[in-house]
Amino acid sequence: MKILVTGGAGFIGSNLCEHLLNEGNNVVCLDNFSTGHIENISSLISKYTDSFQLIEGDIRNIEDCNKAVEGVDYVLHEAALGSVPRSIKAPITTNEVNVSGFVNMLEASKNAGVKRFIFAASSSTYGDSKELPKVEERIGKPLSPYAVTKYVNELYADVFSKIYGLEYIGLRYFNVFGRRQDPNGAYAAVIPLFVKKLLNHESPVINGDGSFSRDFTYIDNVIQMNMLSMTTTNKEAVNQIYNVACGENTTIGNLFELIKQILSGYDSAIGDVVPIYGPIREGDIPHSLANIEKAKNLLSYTPKYSIKEGLIEACKWYRENL
Questions:
Q1: What is the DSSP code string of 283-294?
Q2: What is the CATH number of the domain that holds 68?
Q3: Is 277 a residue of the active site?
Q4: 88: which of 53, 112, 113, 204 lies 20 to 30 Å off by Cα?
């Protein structure tokens, strides 16, 4: 198969590219390197000279989108400007990339006759809903510009399905972590930040008192869900939105202790590091926990990695690569 991965030089996208290539597929990677890194795919470029194509382009440019989908069977759309804090700081750019760019990709995919469009949705769509665990059919009001854009993506995909017959599956990712997740920059995610600080014997900052909780999801579970979404022949499973998670939540305080415990096995001095507690971030929800029954029932999804198993793998990768 020929598969386009937008944002293919990013954290999730590069892992998808690698898996698809290892499975013998032809892969096109579209990325403008605004948040992705060439280092994430340099080994793929050199190893898969005949089956990997890099297009340096921007999803805000319809010509780039049209070029990228030529002859493509499936699209895995990962390109986006992530981060709730970044969206609060730059709502216009976030909307241009996440909404206008998304519609460009839908239009290009529709015109190219793509078989199915799988895209990265977000657990932020649940907004101010206090219901736990989160069920796909019930959401609240968004709490950030980023959350608004991700919900709009779901609405647009549904409209393109009903009007133009474009098959889609949207995957609401819950706090994905793992190899290649960047620990640097102003909008780095919590797990790589914690790992980097601890490896340097420095105290990481916990926003709030550590009681907020998340459904942390290892990258290989996300790859698994993308593959199931792409290959399913169950008609009921298509044109649906799914939670992508482990179905278990962990407080930020416990997350810190778990990472510290794992890394202390390599360096006992890490066991003495204590966190610093800072203010709660604007736009943050207190708790996040996914119900994954829909994915289990329609896509036969069972997470391969628990949070602890994923953290062990991630910590090993960061020790070897930071």
A1: T--SB--B--HH
A2: 3.40.50.720
A3: no
A4: 204
For residue 64, give Cα distances in angstroms to 59, 69, 115, 116, 319.
7, 9, 19, 19, 37
State whether residue 278 is helix, strand or coil.
Answer: strand
Written as six digits, the tokens of 262 are 């794992």
Helix, strand counts (H, E) of the chain: 12, 13
Domain presence at residue 208: no
Strands 213-214 and 250-251: antiparallel
pLDDT 10s digits, 195-221? 999 999 999 999 999 999 999 999 999
277 assigned to some structural domain:
no
Dihedral of alpha carbons 290, 296, 298, 300, sign: positive
48, 126, 146, 151: the active-site residue: 146
Cis geometry, peptide bond prior to residue 133 (ω within 30 degrees of 0): yes
Structural domain of 18: 2-179+218-245+296-304
Q: How far is CA 11 from CA 33, 72, 138, 243, in A?
A: 12, 22, 29, 19
0.90 exceeded by the pTM? yes
Token pair 């190899």 is found at 179
